[in-house]
Design goal:
two-stranded antiparallel sheet; Beta-Lactamase; 2 domains; about 250 residues
């Protein structure tokens, strides 16, 4: 019950919040929380003293996801997109107030963006996160913006990026989180709304802004195809994808 309460919460929870929600006294709840924390199913913020998902829980979730569902649906799409653009592509799942890299295909180039399977980052950090954040329900978006503000993020710049995402349905940036990496990301939707993001990333001397824009149509078409297979609706009329040759493809 304790684990389920934290997992289902939209924000980190304190001891008394959890105890009240599950109907247990403070000492029993504290003991259970310590046990879950020791096993890394939960983690406790040293400043706020609140609990959120731990690395072990996320790792087990990734294993389950990779065996079915989103990763299975996306796998062939990821491979085809990687083959078209020649850069590392990855898919990132919304988990609580984080996004987690659950699958992908690395670039064949010797110098490439490495896959970071299992990496969990806050929903406001990096293009893969922002592509999800831009399409969250309003109350969840406001909570995420507040978390970004508390983390010292430039919320004005973040909101401008989110507005651009809502308009063009992708974000193309260089050095946004990692100085040497360029990345372009788009959201993925299931029947309930935004659920993940699709990203193509590479070294900035090769994966330049013009080159990313060249393949924006490919990225969007792939995100839309995955969304359809998940029962979701990609909220736009897609541009014609041009690919390497610059000639339109049907």
């Amino acid at each position: 019950m304790v684990l389920d309460r934290v997992v289902s919460s939209e924000h980190p929870l304190g001891l008394m919040e959890i105890a009240k929600a599950v109907g247990l006294d403070k000492s029993v709840t504290s003991r259970l929380l310590r046990s879950l924390e020791r096993r890394a199913f939960l983690q406790r913020d040293s400043a706020s003293k609140k609990y959120s998902l731990g690395s072990r829980f996320i790792a087990l979730s990734i294993t389950a996801i990779q065996r079915s569902g989103l990763a299975g649906i996306a796998r062939n799409h990821l491979r085809r997109l990687r083959d078209r653009i020649g850069e590392t592509v990855s898919i990132h799942l919304l988990v609580g107030r984080s996004r987690v890299c659950i699958d992908g295909n690395e670039s064949p180039h010797e110098v490439r963006r490495a896959l970071t399977l299992g990496e969990a980052l806050p929903i406001y950090l990096g293009p893969s996160s922002k592509a999800i954040m831009a399409f969250l329900p309003e109350h969840e978006l406001l909570e995420a913006l507040q978390q970004a503000r508390e983390a010292g993020i430039d919320v004005g710049q973040l909101e401008r990026q989110l507005a651009a995402l809502r308009q063009q349905k992708y974000l193309s940036v260089s050095g946004d989180r990692t100085p040497s990496v360029g990345a372009i990301s788009a959201p993925i939707f299931d029947s309930r709304g935004v659920t993940a993001s699709l990203t193509a990333a590479g070294p900035i001397d090769r994966w330049t802004p013009p080159r990313m824009e060249t393949f924006a149509g490919d990225l969007l078409s792939t995100a839309a195809a995955i969304s359809r297979e998940l029962g979701g609706n990609f909220p736009m009329a897609l541009p014609v994808a041009t690919g390497r040759s610059g000639e339109a493809r049907s």
